[in-house]
């Protein structure tokens, strides 16, 4: 699966397994792991937790979100539709800059009460989930 990345300077390139950059190190703000057949969030994501603003994990088989994901303080958009999530962890409240959350087409039954701590959150796409509350 190829991973596309976008830097602050809007340069698009390929992130190769060795993650070696030519010249100065790029600041990665967007990672797209859509349609990669993943069962968990790739560990490489956490190498960019200070600069990552958008993360796309669409159409995989991810069952849970790791705690370390919620250290990505710059994250503004988290897109994880069409996965196998059954719940959102309460640690989602630590994503204080999150503006958009797409959790559609999962098995999520309820939202943690403290999601209201995500003060910037303006868009939640949660269709095709058995949400009860």
Automatic annotation (TrEMBL):
Biological processes per GO annotation: cell-cell adhesion; establishment or maintenance of epithelial cell apical/basal polarity; neurotransmitter receptor transport postsynaptic membrane to endosome; neurotransmitter receptor transport, endosome to postsynaptic membrane; positive regulation of neuron projection development; receptor clustering
Name the UniProt record assigns to this protein: LRRC7 protein
Any matching Pfam family: LRR_8
Keyword terms: Leucine-rich repeat, Repeat
Family annotation (SMART domains): LRR_TYP
PROSITE patterns in the record: LRR
InterPro entries: Leu-rich_rpt (IPR001611), Leu-rich_rpt_typical-subtyp (IPR003591), LRR_dom_sf (IPR032675), Synaptic_Scaffolding_LAP-MAGUK (IPR050614)
Species annotation: Zapornia atra
Record's GO cellular component terms: adherens junction; axon initial segment; basolateral plasma membrane; postsynaptic density; postsynaptic membrane
GO molecular function, a single term: protein kinase binding
